[in-house]
Amino acid sequence: MRRTIFDLDVLRTFSTGIELGNFAKAAEKLGRSTSAVSAQLKKLEEQAGTPIFRKSGRGLALTDAGETMLGYARRLLDLNDEAAAAVHSVELEGWVRLGLQEDFGENLLPDVLGRFARAHPKVRIEARVVRNAELLDRVTSGKLDLALAWSDGTLTAHCEAIGEVPMCWIGPAEGQPGWRAASGEPMPLASLEAPCLLRNAAT
Questions:
Q1: What is the CATH number of the domain that holds 64?
Q2: Which residues of the chain have pLDDT under 50?
Q3: What's the CA dihedral at 61, 64, 65, 68 to 10 degrees?
Q4: What are phi and psi of 108, to 5 degrees?
Q5: Which domain holds residue 33?
């Protein structure tokens, strides 16, 4: 039986397209033509030996095999990028003070720090998970080297927008009782205490 060796370049196109929700955007981000991206996706299905896409309205959705492929593609790409960083930055060393907002710290920090520590064992990281306003103050005062925080859209000379997260309202399902305070009174809105960018947007 012939061994299947997946093309990492093709997997990156596949993963990027799913992440952006649009393969035309993936083509633009990766500097390729849409026809080249289509050829890569066709190659991926040929390598997989099974359909990884199905039609969904005007667009495409993943089959069960496609969902499986996406999980492995992300793992392979992460390992590839980790290996490349480790090989090219063997001598990277020092101390980095990193700050994260609570939302990011709980979900991203363990995995990211683990991968970074394996790639750069000589770098020591001091991570601080605090509220958004404190992060911005600490970066401005020089107490943090780098922070991942929410933004209200205002960009300064030392910040960079790296992504957008859609906001949504969360409430009880239709017909289900809503949240109630200990007194039994309905609770119309639950939010973090001020200052909070999301609270400001909600109110």
A1: 1.10.10.10
A2: none
A3: 100
A4: -100, -35
A5: 8-87
